[in-house]
Specification:
It is a single chain. Helix content is 46%, strand content 17%. The chain has 30 helices and 29 strands. It has 922 residues and is an alpha/beta fold. The protein has a 4-stranded antiparallel beta sheet. The chain has a 4-stranded mixed beta sheet with strand order 10-11-9-12, covered by helices on one side. Strands 27-26-29-28 form a 4-stranded mixed beta sheet, with helices on both faces. It binds one RNA strand of 77 nucleotides through β8, β12, α11, α21 and α23.
Length: 922
RNA sequence: AGGACUAUAGCUCAGUUGGUUAGAGCGCUACCUUGACAUGGUAGAGGUCCCCAGUUCGAAUCUGGGUAGUCCUACCA
């Protein structure tokens, strides 16, 4: 074995072997356990957030696989309609062409080509992370099978009246030329202006002043509204306004939507370009005048002067024209929420178009009930509220997208505008008995990507066929996801699955936090602060990282900012930490919080942990290989206190890990393992094994016992750790497993350790605590008194009880070795010890003679520090006990405990004071 | 505007049903190349548990109010 752990040498090798041997496939077993991967964008790449999520799922999967479940991790990707189409369009643009020149069919070929070309990135990354998904079942949302599912669902929902077509205002992305759903619109505050326009009354008797943030929409105004109770304007109701620049006469109407307090209390109403105005328009039967085209330029419904102008130019022109007419009253600075497309980043227009909708309200009802009645449970629980609040006020879902990349809507239209929905044109014709003379045209649009991913849990398993996989693995066990897609995906999956399967898609939704950078910023490509998990595994030089982060950035200003912060945050680039360290870091950060700040210090620490494990294994192998480890009954085996204690601690650790995993507290699981392996097994047990193994006089049976314990505990630790650190555990287990009497080709398929109650040994725990405290007491004196670590000490023991005596007797070897003692002798009755430094363990006094190594002042200072601590504690406890209310009302056990503390602390205090006195008298 | 979450050591974070001497890792200080590991060992320093009030014998923990920050939903032209 190498002296240090070198992850790069082993990771790929093991992954290839696991995959080749088919270990990732379900292995049978009575109970099924399945997780459906949230499908990443097929042409994208994994970032730290994905890495985190995959690590969590893999831990669950490996844990349950080892625990004997019939375990399936369903893998796959989605086609990410808008994102992918945008990317390919950009590529075409670079070549000086576009999709319209290419035509639909050719364009789609290009997209498929791009998918083939870039699709490997994600799967490569998943493999590097050690994710044990069943690759033989990989699915893609645009596969034939999944496309069938999409089509079946669409047709059935249409026939049930749960999908309909409607002409309404949608969120229109003028750059991508498609409608998008409410969820794909991000509204953020931006600085803008509030323009105040005078709208003259038609009768020439003055004007009303309206305020607007979007002057260009005035061309589509069809009314001015005031509040019905507004005394200022009551007399004007029913009159009309002469809308400037258009010459149109529009009414003054009353509607209590208007806020009297805001601005002048008069609102211009543009039903075609504002959601609220649209509703108001319906209430008042106002005409709807659309003044924009698909590009959000002014169309022919507007006065000629503005036609063809881009919306921004039109805005400037209108403001200037109004000003010239003397109708611009004032302009104020104003911050407003600007809706932008989450993909394109351009300002979204409310725009009147014909689109397809899902009746979400109907589907939501059972989906709400499923969470209310506990069929689906969110972890942490509070996310259920987020889910409810959205579901109870859900809007119909616009599912058509004016794109080419996606599932084409299976609807045909004849020349009269009749709609025929069916599997294909031929079927539609025969079903509706349409003659060949009728021309049919298929809908040009495709479905929202989320429409297909909403079917993910069952479409991946073969639906609409009633496959055996469906019967076994559906509903899935748990969905692991971020809270940012509860609405996008989780809710829609629940709705669709309940409707089509009459069962839930998963029993539990485990909602994890979002990974942020060290400054708490959300990681995003546009900010240039993303980290590719592979770069943490393999490491990356600073210059490469800077290049990676700034390449392809649209705004040079942001690029230089990204470069600056990258250089500051990673002055030396990123070290190679290996997959296991990265994964363990993820687990340690997976608490219930919403934000996870990724700190390099943590991963560094866990890299060291890997090395610690590696070296512990080296030590164990050095001592156990080619030795009798007591695995057969042939020879007697004696177990020392240390052996019994570490086995007992191991059982406690198993319980802790199981409990933590059951509650999705991976931070607790990882901490329990770290704590046990480093602070108990390495720091204490390995040290305690040395006196036995290296002591000539120790019995063979005792040595066998120690070797047996060394190897067994290590082997169990490896299995316990495997779901979290797959590579290092497999590598070491290959040698350690057989030595511990285990056989099998891989640790992956070994049983996960469970607590063996009979090995919990409270007496051994107590004895070991005592032993540790004695050793720590002596070490403390060494440290504080600056006694060289190598110098052997002869100590005296005083005042102990029978238990102290027997404990010392049984553990003298351990004590001498770990505290570096040449001797430990009880003071005889009445025997005066020389002047000593003192450590207390309960009533037992440990005396380190000060002769010739003394620093009188140092010891006095040390005693003073101890004394002060105890005095403070004592004062606190005595205060409590002198309070009659406490003594009366607190449980007797609590009071008793406090009393015992007082006694113990008083005794300790006396001893320390005695000690100080003696030293002062020296 | 409504709602949620967060506030604990210099940093990143744990802290179960109220009773601990409030913990871990990193960082820091001192000492140590002892036969698994210097990616290490030993010892140590470091906290007004955001503030105020309340409940209680007892509050980091429960209640109310406040401050700061983050996020979600809705939206005022």
């Amino acid at each position: 074995m190498d002296k240090t752990f070198q992850p790069a040498n082993i990771e790929t090798r093991w992954y290839e072997e696991w995959e080749a041997k088919g270990y990732f496939a379900p292995q049978g077993g009575e109970q099924a356990y399945s997780i459906m991967i949230p499908p990443p964008n097929v042409t994208g790449s994994l970032h730290m957030g994905h890495g985190f999520q995959e690590a969590l799922m893999d831990a669950l999967i490996r844990y349950h696989r080892m625990s004997g479940f019939n375990t399936l991790w369903q893998v796959g990707t989605d086609h990410a309609g808008i994102a992918t189409q945008m990317l390919v369009e950009r590529q075409l643009e670079a070549k000086g062409t576009n999709r319209h020149e290419l035509g639909r069919e050719k364009f789609l070929e290009k997209v498929w080509e791009w998918k083939e070309e870039s699709g490997g990135t994600i799967t490569r990354q998943l493999r590097r992370l050690g994710s044990s998904m069943d690759w033989s079942r990989e699915r893609f949302t645009m596969d034939d099978g999944l496309s069938d599912a999409v089509q079946t669902v669409f047709i059935q929902l249409y026939r049930e009246g749960l999908i309909y077509r409607g002409n309404r205002l949608v969120n229109w992305d003028p750059a991508l030329h498609t409608a998008i759903s409410d969820l794909e619109v991000i509204s953020e505050e931006e600085k803008g202006f509030l323009w105040h326009f005078k709208y003259p009354l038609s009768n020439g008797e003055g004007h009303l002043t309206v305020a607007t943030t979007r002057p260009e929409t005035m061309l589509g105004d069809t009314a001015v509204a005031v509040h019905p109770d507004d005394e200022r304007y009551k007399h004007l109701l029913g009159q009309t306004i002469e809308l400037p620049l258009t010459g149109r006469q529009i009414p003054i109407i009353a509607d209590d939507y208007v806020d009297m307090e805001f601005g002048t209390g008069c609102v211009k109403i543009t039903p075609a370009h504002d959601f609220n105005d649209y509703d108001m328009g319906k209430r008042h039967d106002l005409p709807v005048i659309n003044i924009l085209d698909d590009n959000a330029a002014i169309n022919n419904n507007a006065p000629e002067a503005y036609r063809g102008m881009d919306r921004d130019d039109a805005r400037k022109q209108i403001v200037s024209d109004m000003d010239k007419l003397g109708l611009l009253e004032k302009v104020e600075d104003h911050t407003l929420k600007v809706p932008r497309g989450d993909r394109s980043g351009v300002v979204i227009e409310p725009y009147l178009t014909m689109q397809w909708y899902v009746d979400a309200k109907t589907l939501a009802k059972p989906a709400i009930e499923a969470v209310e009645n506990g069929d689906i449970e969110f972890v942490p629980k509070q996310w259920e509220n987020t889910y409810f609040s959205w579901m109870r006020d859900i809007q119909d879902w616009c599912i058509s997208r004016q794109l080419w990349w996606g599932h084409r809507i299976p609807a045909w239209y004849d020349d009269e505008g009749n709609i025929y929905v069916g599997d294909n044109e031929a079927e539609v014709r025969s079903e509706h008995k349409l003659s060949d003379a009728v021309t049919l045209k298929q809908d040009n649009d495709v479905l929202d990507t989320w429409f297909s991913s909403a079917l993910w849990t069952f479409s991946t398993l073969g639906w609409p066929e009633e496959s055996e996989d469906l019967a076994i693995f559906h509903p899935s066990s748990v969905l692991v996801t971020g809270f940012d897609i509860i609405f996008f995906w989780v809710a829609r999956m629940i709705m669709m699955t309940l409707h089509f399967r009459k069962e839930v898609p998963f029993h539990t939704v485990y909602v994890h936090g979002l990974v942020r950078d060290a400054e708490g910023q959300k990681m995003s490509k546009s900010k240039g602060n993303v980290i590719d998990p592979i770069d943490l595994i393999d490491g990356i030089a600073l210059e490469d990282l800077v290049a990676k982060r700034t390449s392809g950035m649209m705004q040079p200003r942001l690029a230089s900012k990204a470069e600056k912060s990258t250089r500051k945050q990673f002055p030396d680039g990123i070290d190679a930490y290996g997959t296991d360290a990265l994964r363990f870091t993820y687990y340690s950060l997976a608490s219930t919080g919403r934000d996870i700040k990724f700190d390099l210090g943590r991963i560094e620490g866990y890299k060291n942990f890997c090395n610690k494990i590696w070296n512990a294994a080296r030590y164990v192998l050095m001592n156990c290989e080619n030795e009798d480890c007591g695995l057969t009954d042939a020879n007697d085996v004696d177990l020392t206190l240390a052996d019994r204690w570490i086995m007992s601690k191991l059982q406690e650790t198993k319980t802790e890990v199981a409990h933590a995993v059951a509650n999705y507290r991976f931070d607790h699981a990882s901490q329990a393992l770290y704590e046990f392996i480093w602070n108990e097994y390495c720091d204490w047990y390995l040290e305690l094994s040395k006196p036995v193994l290296w002591d000539e006089s120790a019995s063979e049976a005792a040595k066998r016992g120690t070797r047996q314990t060394l190897i067994r505990v290590l082997e169990e630790c490896l299995r316990l750790l495997h779901p979290f650190m797959p590579y290092i555990t497999e590598e070491i287990w290959q040698t350690v497993g057989p030595l511990a009497g285990k056989s099998g080709p891989t640790i992956m398929l070994q049983p996960y350790p469970v607590c063996q109650e009979q090995l919990i040994d409270t007496a051994a725990n107590a004895d070991t605590t005592w032993l540790k405290n004695v050793i720590i007491g002596i070490r403390n004196i060494r440290g504080e008194m600056n006694i060289a670590p190598g110098k052997e000490l002869a100590v005296f023991l005083k005042d102990g009880d029978a238990e102290d005596k027997s404990r010392l007797e049984q553990n003298e070897v351990f004590l001498k070795k770990l505290a570096k003692l040449s001797d430990a002798r009880w003071l005889a009755q009445g025997e005066e010890a020389p002047v000593c430094a003192t450590a207390l363990v309960g009533k037992l006094e440990i005396l380190v003679p000060m002769a010739d190594l003394i620093d009188k002042d140092a010891e006095l200072a040390r005693l003073a520090k101890e004394t002060e601590k105890i005095e403070k504690d004592l004062a606190r406890i005595q205060g409590k006990l002198s309070n009659p209310a406490f003594v009366d009302k607190a449980p007797a056990a609590v009071v008793e405990k406090e009393r015992e503390k007082v006694t113990a602390q008083q005794q300790a205090l006396e001893k320390l004071q005695d000690q100080a006195q003696r030293i002062r008298e020296m």
